[in-house]
Amino acid sequence: MTGDLHAETRRVRERFTRFAAERIAGRGDLDNGEAFPGDLWRRMGEAGLFRLGIPKRYGGSGGGWPALVAAGEALVASGGNLGLALSWLVQQAVARFLVHGFGNAGQRGRLLPELALGRLTVAFAVSEPGHGAHPKHLTTRAERAGDRFRLTGEKAYLTNGPIADLYVVVAVTSEAEGRKRLTAFLVPRRTPGLSVAAPTPLPFLRPSPHGGIELVDCRLPGTAVLGEAGTAYETMVIPFGGVEDLLMTGAILGALSRLEARAVEALRAGEPDRTLRSELGTVHALREMLTGVALAAAADLDRGVAPSGIPQTVAGFPLAVALLERHAAILSRTGAGEDPVPARLQADLTALFSLSRRRLIARQERLGAALISNPA
Fold it and tell me: 341: number of CA atoms within 13 Å, CB side?
């Protein structure tokens, strides 16, 4: 089994490395342009990159969570862009974890083949303006009207929101004793009453598009419900955070790999002292260790371990931050820190770590509480 896993991740790395080197590397518009590169997104579909992680019976190429981690790593390491990998990884996470994981036979058969071909882009709509994704503060509601639902509310901070054709919208469907019950709905972009806001301009993680949607009296059939009604927060929202963090670990590893490669080039060109050689060896060993941790966590997810029960994703965060700081120090001492690609990757990683810090700290607290409350 281990040999099969290594062979699969190796094939995926090779395939995604070739695409990234040929199609992504050297495209200056990815970091500097304001518009999302729709031409590149289409080429990714034509190359079959959206098939990864989707079962073959639905037109995908199969592959488990370790393959998706390895693919994200290769896209960034060879393409030199973290934002595009973010958009691709979130797309695949929604397709595999939400649509395949919670969809009924009809929803899977209708949506997954289109997702595998890259002809359908999907976004997960949970957070709302001003208060994020905390369940107590969510106000988007879905009211039953006969055999249909009527959705009203506003969602914000959606990765791929401005380009999505379909939104998985989480809305309040009932409330009792101060506790809101949330349900997920499949809402096509063309649904009357749904409007898509202009992309939110961000100085980091370009060209990944982020933005919001507004729902005003959106009428949906009962068949639009994804998963079991009233359970979306517990079964989808919380675990999805773990899935997203795990997949982004692959992209982060790709960025760290690219920074390491640049550091090696710089050290070869000069006369590195013993301290710099030792530091390079240390960061390489730590990155290899973090790679093993991420792939092990992904393999656990394939075996059915709940994303919230994978402590490796929590442990890897401070290690990745430390690696970034060490790479930055090496590059600055060798004079290679002016290279635009490593500089952008460092800035994107810093922004990503800052955005993720609060959520990961909360998860660390939950993990600690579980360890204390559960008997050995």
Answer: 21
pTM above 0.70, yes or no: yes
CATH 1.10.3720.10 fits 233-373, yes or no: no
CATH 1.10.540.10 for the 2-121 domain, yes or no: yes
Q: How far is CA 322 from the centre of its chain?
A: 21
Fold exhibited by the domain 123-230 = Butyryl-CoA Dehydrogenase, subunit A; domain 2 (2.40.110)
* Catalytic position from the list 244, 271, 279, 338: 244
Positive or negative CA dihedral for 184, 189, 190, 195? Answer: positive
154 is catalytic: no
Whether a cis peptide bond, with omega within 30° of 0, leads into 340 is no
Give strand ranges (E) for the chain: 122-125, 141-145, 148-159, 166-176, 179-188, 194-196, 210-221, 225-226
Work out the angle between the directed axes of helices 82-93 and 65-79 (0-180°, nearest 10).
160
User: Tell me, what amino acid is at 23?
Assistant: R
Residues 83-136 pLDDT 10s: 999 999 999 999 999 999 999 999 999 999 999 999 999 999 999 998 888 888
